[in-house]
Amino acid sequence: MNSDWWNFRLRYQGIVPPTPRSESHFDAAAKRHIPADVPYIKYYVALLLEFQIYKSMCDAANHKGSLHTCDVYRSREAGRVLSDILRVGKARHWKDVIKMLTKDKGGKLSAEPLLEYFQPLYIWLQSANRDEPVIGWTANKDDLALYQPLVGLATTCKASPLLFASVIVFLAGRNLP
Fold first, then answer.
1. Whose CA, among 80, 121, 162, 177, lies 20 to 30 Å from 22?
2. Where are the coiled-coil regions (predicted)?
3. Which residues form the domain of 82?
4. pTM to 2 decimals?
């Protein structure tokens, strides 16, 4: 199990352990969220809400143009939007706050503001990924030997996306309202 953890770390982050590790170690527990069973879903929801709030503030400031160029500095209207939702505090459900933000135009959590904000970057990345060489990382046997089981050292990093997705879905489903 520990070697699977380090396979994920290497594959997705390019990180190997600083010292030799074995299956008797449980390095995933060093990530506070895993042993404390803290679901990651709240971070995803918070990120989406941040961009929805930002979009609402930009709309209130009558911003024209791309969302990533919006500047709400010194906008009383944008300040009012932020003040109104902060004033509510925990007195109302967060879904009601979204309805306030969207002025009843759907009133649902949405990724649209996030996608709109990063649209120029997305277009650039498509072009760069198509036209530029892929830059990444490779691991040598010495790196892999730090965490692979002692028998049959692997020379490639293989991790199951299904396992990763299953863990995320499991953790997310445990604390949904």
1. 162
2. none
3. 41-131
4. 0.67
